[in-house]
Design a protein that fits this description.
single chain; alpha+beta; eight-stranded mixed beta sheet; five-stranded mixed beta sheet; 27 helices; 31 strands; 40% helix; binds arginine; binds zinc ion; metal-binding; metalloprotease; Peptidase_M1_pepN_Ig-like
Length: 865
């Protein structure tokens, strides 16, 4: 439970940063662990930082001191709110505290909590203060010694950061273990786990020849599902040595999977703790998407050992220093494992689905924010994914050699310290020999820049002119924006001869407007711009449907080729929505050409022929009309299905009999199979549902099974009712003991495009397997439903009321997870007056709840502003 807020919560500002008054070079922790009562003794060696006479102030959250000693003697102390304050006379002291906490009542899943019979911790950002009194800020770096005592039968495994140093048996069936972490670290990287766990073990030999013991810890029955994660870990360790020259530094590296977790995973030093959905994978229960996500998250957390742990953040405003850079690193890693082109398309699709709407809405904030009420609300797509794009742009501007020199400089210079985004950029400038003064606006200005590109050609004199204009939209608190540095890769093709007229070049657009002249343009040029998505911006061009179709068939940059097709589809759908009708022929022809191009990778084809999502279409429009968007998109899907039915069927047949193999080729085949099945069903072909049901039943892997289930779950036709109901039922019973797969069952139904989805979701919220206490389950049903544009925005407002009811209930258990689900309601400005009023009314109702958390208060009130 959370306490009612007595006073208005305080805003934390970046400009107010001051160094810590006291440092804590060493800490000894002693845990007497039990779910119903855990006693925590802490001995902090503290050192005054600079000349001042301020007291020692230790953060706490819900803690009551049972004892406080200074240098071995009872000491005077006072509470200031939740913090413990002690006046200290000297320069160094040993401060001991003792508190008691109740892990089994911790529903927020921050601090020490209970999950699936095990005890585990989550401290980032400010969870350590729920375990013990401490200066809970990332610029206080401490060496930890941790002793844990627990019941041996119930918790045979005791893990913490660093290396194990001693263990033994105690009285009354208890045992203990002690771990030391030699690397000074901020308290947000502290972790412990006590549980009945088994390990999938391996060793890794580092570049300098040290042997590291690797262990992935799960319930015994889940061990067979850990090979993929273990393999990904080894690949990540080798990759970071090869690509960034970064070697692992401890003798052990452990990962523990837990079922109840607020986000993806956590990079605690030497003891990563993961949401089990990012560890467990086998062909029967995990899709290709899940396999990829497991590898990406394992890599991400591992890479944090350098970008995050060895070099950490000075304060939480610098969060993107570690997250943006580490996302960039994990994206590069994944690109190296398979198709870099498809990976780039997926990353951009993710950015557009999550970050662009955030940047264009009430919660927009810079990559380096200036203030927050609750830091948990800033673990956003902007910090992570836009932050990664900012790093990528610097890598593009510097080129690979200088970028590597710059990261070497950064790691060397700041190893063992708490750094800032500014420190990182300064290294880029120094090693890259570039001036990034104006580029720094990417850290301080929110909002997605918009570029207008107009190409004019004078046929007679062989000249062409490209006019580029940029603007950055106003965002909350930032009405006026300065022009930014936009690295745009571009190229000109000749429409008649299908050749390259002007080779690819990198243009740095730095002014509000610039004009570039090209010579020797002897035929009508077609512009390929923002190739590889070199800048995270929105580009408007004056390209015709014919130009876009040309690029979708000819561009040699796979991303630009995909993008041309998407733009053609988007232009067509926006015209259909706003003008009531549109010519489908260019899209059908372009898709037909893509399908029949033998040179293309099937995984790429599958991405290219998918229509933009309902939400992305909505994002192009001043006012979103969910039902019309849905109907127009379905109409185009149906026509694509019908017009190209033979191609979809032969494509489907060509991959139908494949056996499961997790490889780029295997993944590509399954991807195209699901897409083809979707189009065959969209065409209305009478055998569509049977084909889907047959795929559902005969699948030897979850990708095919869930793909078929999704097709059936979306089927509007009464004729498919039998197959749809049967497949959902079979799926449920087959996987009723597997929480991660049940999440898919809830999510598939919550995302259904059927007209009765809202009713179905309301029933599912009363299903015995539904619970708000498990974040994965809450997100699978409520989170998924809230991004189902058609169902959530049902005109009567019932979707809004349902989600608001759930958020109010969830906030009482887990404010952090509840607050993450606010943004769909906060998009009210983009909807017509009646819907907007209903959405606002629900936000007002949430805000009026007594005892609303700080997390929700911040998100909801910003959404109403
Ligand atoms: N550092 C973790 C990661 O990205 C995530 C921590 C999220 N913390 C939070 N309070 N939301 O790898
Ligand atoms: Zn991270």
């Amino acid at each position: 439970m959370i306490d009612a807020l007595a006073t208005k919560p305080a805003i934390t500002r970046r400009a107010d940063y001051t160094p810590p008054d006291w440092l804590v070079p060493d800490l000894a922790l002693d845990f007497d662990l039990a779910p119903e009562r855990t006693r925590v003794r802490a001995a902090l060696s503290v050192a005054r930082n600079g000349a001042h006479d301020r007291p020692l102030r230790l953060d706490g959250d819900g803690l009551t001191p049972l004892a406080v000693r200074v240098d071995g003697a009872e000491a005077r102390w006072r509470m200031d709110g939740a913090a413990l304050v002690i006046d200290l006379p000297g320069e160094t002291h040993v401060v001991e505290t003792e508190v008691q906490i109740v892990p089994e009542r911790n529903t927020q899943l921050m601090g020490l909590y209970h999950s699936g019979g095990n005890l585990c911790t989550q401290c980032e950002a400010e969870g350590f203060r729920r375990i013990t009194f401490f200066p809970d800020r990332p610029d206080v770096l401490t060496r930890y010694r941790v002793k844990m005592t627990a019941d041996k039968a119930r918790y045979p495994v005791l893990l913490a950061n660093g290396d194990p140093v001693a263990s033994g048996d105690g009285e009354g069936g208890r045992h203990w273990a002690e771990w030391h972490d030699p690397f000074p670290k901020p308290c947000y990287l502290f972790a412990l786990v006590a549980g009945d766990l088994a390990a999938n073990r391996a060793t890794f030999t580092t570049a300098s020849g040290r042997t590291v013991q690797l262990g992935i810890w799960v319930r015994e029955k889940d061990l067979p599902k850990t090979d993929h994660a273990l393999h990904a870990l080894k690949l990540s360790m080798a990759w970071d040595e090869r690509v960034y020259g970064r070697e692992y530094d401890l003798d052990v590296f452990n990962i523990v999977a837990v079922d109840d977790f607020n986000f993806g995973a956590m990079e605690n030093k030497g003891l990563n703790i993961f949401n089990s959905r990012y560890i467990l994978a086998d062909p029967d229960t995990a899709t290709d998407y899940d396999y990829d996500a497991v590898a990406a998250v394992v890599a991400h957390e591992y890479f944090h050992n350098w970008s995050g742990n060895r070099v950490t953040c000075r304060d939480w405003f610098q969060l993107s220093l570690k997250e943006g850079f580490t996302v960039y690193r994990d994206q590069q890693f994944s690109a190296d494992q398979g198709s870099a082109a498809v990976k780039r398309i997926e990353d951009v699709r993710g950015l557009r689905a999550a970050q662009f709407p955030e940047d264009g809405g009430p919660l927009a904030h810079p990559v380096r924010p200036d203030e927050y009420l609750e830091i948990s609300n800033f673990y956003t797509a902007t910090i992570y994914n836009k932050g990664a794009e900012v790093i990528r742009m610097m890598a593009t501007i510097l080129g690979p050699q200088k970028f590597r020199a710059a990261t070497d400089l950064y790691f060397d210079r700041f190893d063992g310290t708490a750094a800032t985004c500014e420190d990182f950029v300064a290294c880029m400038e120094e090693a890259g020999g570039v001036d990034l003064t104006q580029f720094r606006l990417w850290y301080s200005q929110a909002g997605t820049p918009r570029v207008t590109a107009t190409l004019d050609h004078q046929a007679g004199d062989g000249r062409a002119h490209l006019t580029l204009r940029q603007s950055v939209p106003p965002t909350p608190g930032q009405p006026d924006k300065a022009p930014m540095v936009l690295p745009l890769k571009l190229k000109l093709f000749g429409a008649e001869t299908d050749t390259s007229l002007i080779e690819e070049r990198l243009v740095l657009l730095e002014e509000a407007e610039t004009r570039i002249a090209f010579e020797g343009v002897t035929e009508r040029p077609v512009l390929s711009i923002n190739r590889g998505f070199s800048a995270p911006v929105i580009v408007d061009t004056n390209r015709s449907a014919a130009d876009l179709a040309f690029l979708s068939a000819q561009d040699d940059d796979p991303f630009a080729r995909y993008e041309a097709m998407q733009q053609l589809m988007l232009d067509t759908l926006v015209a259909a929505v706003t003008q009531g009708r549109a010519d489908h022929a260019p899209v059908i022809e372009a898709v037909a050409n893509t399908l029949s191009d033998p040179a293309l990778d099937p995984a790429f084809v599958a991405e290219a022929v998918l229509l933009p999502s309902d939400s992305f279409i909505g994002d192009q429009l001043a006012l979103v009309d969910p039902e019309t968007i849905f109907q127009k998109r379905e109409a185009l899907r149906r026509e694509l299905g019908r017009a190209l039915e033979d191609q979809w069927r032969s494509l489907y047949e060509s991959v139908r009999a494949n056996r499961f193999e997790y490889s780029p080729a295997g993944k590509g085949a399954r991807r195209i199979k699901s897409v083809a099945l979707g189009y065959i069903n969209a065409s209305g072909a009478s055998d569509g549902p049977d084909l889907a049901f047959a795929q559902f039943e005969s699948a030897d892997n979850m990708t095919d099974r869930q793909g078929a289930l999704t097709t059936l779950a979306n089927s509007p036709s009464d004729a498919a009712n039998g197959q749809r109901v049967a497949a959902l039922d079979i799926f449920y019973h087959r996987y009723s003991d597997n929480g991660l797969v049940l999440d898919k069952w809830f999510q598939t139904q919550a995302l259904s495009t059927r007209a009765d989805t809202l009713d179905a979701v309301q029933d599912l919220a009363r299903h015995p397997d539904f619970t708000l206490a498990n974040p994965n389950r809450a997100r699978a049903l409520i989170g998924a439903f809230a991004v189902n544009q058609r169902a959530f925005h049902a005109p009567d407002g019932r979707g809004y009321r349902f989600v608001a009811d759930q958020l109010i209930a969830l906030d009482k258990l887990n404010p952090q997870t509840a607050a993450k689900l606010v943004p769909p309601l906060g998009r009210w400005r983009r909807f017509e007056a009646d819907r907007a009023a209903k959405m606002r009314a629900e936000l007002e109702r949430i805000l009026a709840q007594p005892g609303l958390s700080k997390d929700m208060t911040e998100q909801v009130s910003k959404s109403l502003d």
